[in-house]
Design goal:
alpha/beta, 6-stranded mixed sheet
Length: 437
Amino acid sequence: MWEEKLYDIFKECRVITTDSRDCPRGAMFFALKGESFDGNKFATAALNKGCAYAVVDEKEYVVEGDTRYILVDDVLTALQTLANRHRQAFKGPVIQITGTNGKTTTKELVSAVLSKKYNVLFTQGNFNNHIGVPKTLLRLNDSHDIAVIETGANHPGEIKALANIVCPDCGLITNVGVAHIEGFGSFEGVMKTKGELYDNLRHKEGGFIFLNGDNEYLCGMAEGLKAYTYGKPGHGYMVEGEPIEGHSFLRLWWRSSEADNERHEVKTHLVGSYNIDNVLAAVCVGLKFGVAPCDIDNALRDYVPTNNRSEMRETASNTLIVDAYNANPSSMKAALENFSTIISPHGRRKMVILGEMRELGEVSTKEHTKIISMLGKMNIDDVWLVGKEFKECAPPYRVFENISEVEKELRANPLSDRLILIKGSNSTRLYRLPESL
């Protein structure tokens, strides 16, 4: 079968690329297509730059007699099939993580904890889609003990498709919330799609999950699955804990009913008490895979976010809380609630710069109006809003059309001596603002 032939070639090469500008010598080039590009057109260039093989799906780009060209029906399907074949050869456990909020932070924390005992392959950055997941799996090698794979979705069926590629041994859904409603159609659509991970594990012999016992939606979806639970104290969960209030960075305690039952106190580098669930999830995973409690504590203390998620940064003029990678109603609400509890250092004025929440479909105006109403009840000195979704709600705050307008204003009238929360969907590009603040 062509799958086995392709896998034999991959075992020879061990490296793949989908970018003709990045062609390691001896790699396999996969000529993927997009809305505005056709990788087939760059297959020859990739070979000339050092790739050993080029996988294409258009015969006109194959040079007759040149065995370096591999013609398949569909390059993306070939990439995904190859990744699944390679994953099946991996004997260590594979953990799949998804959810509306917190999946990347949870993936990072889980990986940091497991790395205290194992050599962990984990998703880099946000490579959590139909292309990123296969590329991550194809990085597996004999040195790895365990894999942590993040998967994202904005349309029904995507988690099912990714789980079929990943073939997880266990899984974790961080939460379900209102996000990507344009693609999912409804909150029920979000639940159904995220729950496709649970559906996959129900058919896996020995499959199990890590479950936030405080989340009624997830508990309902997880019926019939073996679960290792975490959450607030007093419910008999495997891991329990809660934030210790009064700190800029998340400080928490946790203990386990199945480990030493000792109370552990940890100060993290994460901003926001809403990260407690992400931390407890990492503790739960670590304990299940035999990481010592003291090593778990050290991993949590040492982890420093660098991905525009729950980061606190000091500039020459201001203190910034940068949470600008993603935004939906639940994460926006959590970020604002947390910001309201933070005591501003040195008496600095508190300010928020919020970008619009994208892909909310017909509920967009309603959800943006809720955020504006919430802001009106908070003790915040200055509010700037960015994007047409906010503008259409006619809020009593300053609204900018886009990030460029904000940057222009900051050049003309620099801000100083502020504690500023920056939060918005990644596509609003608020992550550019720290350079101007």
